[in-house]
């Protein structure tokens, strides 16, 4: 297993009683993530932008053969987006900003 941090858009969401599968997409591809949750947990909506930290493991049933078990999640847009205090923590240069604006889904 390997600990990694990803940022991307929620492409799909499958909600179950004790966990949720969140499909995360960025410009490099797609990964399935797994969130262990409590019954009253608020989940992101499709199209939300998330910053996710977790451990990567091989999972033959997952698309691409890998799955990210979420240890920390932060919504940059959508539900709980107010937690973000400074966008510069997530975007490192002006080129990234222009790429994100040019590729925004409407």
């Amino acid at each position: 297993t390997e600990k990694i941090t990803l940022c991307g858009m929620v492409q799909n969401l499958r909600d179950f009683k004790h966990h949720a599968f969140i499909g995360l997409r960025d410009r490099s591809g797609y990964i399935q993530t797994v969130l262990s949750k409590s019954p009253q947990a608020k989940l992101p909506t499709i199209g939300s932008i998330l910053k996710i930290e977790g451990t990567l493991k091989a999972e033959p049933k997952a698309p691409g053969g890998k799955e990210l078990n979420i240890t920390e999640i932060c919504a940059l847009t959508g539900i709980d987006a107010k937690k973000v205090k400074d966008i510069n923590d997530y975007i490192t240069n002006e080129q990234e900003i222009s790429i994100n604006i040019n590729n925004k889904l409407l």
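The radius of gyration is 14 Å. Confidence is low (pLDDT under 50) at residues 81-99.
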